[in-house]
Amino acid sequence: MKTGYNILEKDLLDDFLAMVQIDSPSKSERGMADWLTEKLVSLGCKVEEDDAGSKVDGNAGNLLVYLKGNTDADPLLLSAHMDTVEPANGVVPIIEDGVVRSKGETVLGSDDKAGLACIVQLARLAKDQPDVPRPDLEFSIHISEEVGLLGSKLIDVSKFRSKIGFVLDDTDALKVNTGSPGAVRLDYTVYGKASHAGVAPEKGISALKVAAEILAKMNFGRIDDETTANVGKIEGGTASNVVTEKITMSAEARSHDPKKLKAQVDHMNGCFEEVCKKWQEASKHLWEGTEEGPLPRWEVDQGEDYAPVKFSEDDYGVKLPMAAGRSLGWDMETKVSGGGTDGSILTQKGIPSVVLGVGMRDIHSTKENIAISDLNDAAKLCVTLVTMHAQGGVS
Ligand SMILES: [Zn+2]
Questions:
Q1: Which of these is catalytic: 29, 83, 138, 170?
Q2: Helix (H, G, I), strand (E, B) or coil at 33
Q3: For the chain, which residues score pLDDT lower than 70?
Q4: How many helices (H) and strands (E) does the chain have?
Q5: 83 an active-site residue?
Q6: I want to staple 205 with a disulfide (CB 3.0 to 4.6 A). Which of 16, 170, 193, 238 is the partner?
């Protein structure tokens, strides 16, 4: 029995090039879902599509894919996403000096079709080299990752048996992601009181002025090495001659540490509370006894986007890819990421999932590119960790 796979480099690149030429902006993943379903079924996988698409107003659902193994090792989950950021349509891949990039008018879509190419490669190898030991494999292939991790949030993980997963969706193929921050979304509204700005400004309470005072008080940007916050959008007002009645603000806070995340959110909410209280005192004569009640006032629509994830170097999900990479003679490193991933959601849902790099570079830009050698390395790492796991794993 052979112990390891020989990567099918030509098929890997061909699959990748075929996929980047299928338009798949978020919520329009139909073409990708169909291509993957046909390909994976032809390679011996069972493919189910869920109804997540209809829930996010998209045209395709998540794919839940099952590939039978040939050992009794515990199953492993691998995950990637089908959608890309814009400009996404009409990608023309160009290969120069061993690097694939787009013609320059679109992204390339290696984020995350490089991850998908690794998944297809695993299915290809299982068929091409059936004697190599492998566990049962489960692939969780998501829609709408780029617009708020929508697909992974809707996937039913009870349909998987894996107790551990790998999300193939990061830059450097030789780095293992051991942590990502948690994030809280904060949509604020500040209510003031409208009045004619020329005739009776003293009868109004400017929500804009209140908001400005709140923002001047608030700490955001880089808070510490683990924590960031931002107020990214502010909207309100109707005309120059009307005292602003309402302001809305879209904000967020992120941290790798749940306590620091809560402290930052408390601080931000506290700024609204403190400034509005002060103004309410000063403008009592404008609202006391009215139906509206105290003005100015604030409210927040607050939601956890994803929880912080922290793996230790002793966790099997970190040890396995590190050992797989070292067995290939590579210097493996760990890193932490600045954003949430489908790995955050799968972990939160009970399948601890470590994010691995697949070689994509300059992502979310028209300069996006990937070196073919990095794509090959990413696939090698995936298949090596799978075969290593099937042969007893690492202790
Ligand atoms: Zn991605």
A1: 83
A2: helix
A3: 1
A4: 11, 18
A5: yes
A6: 193
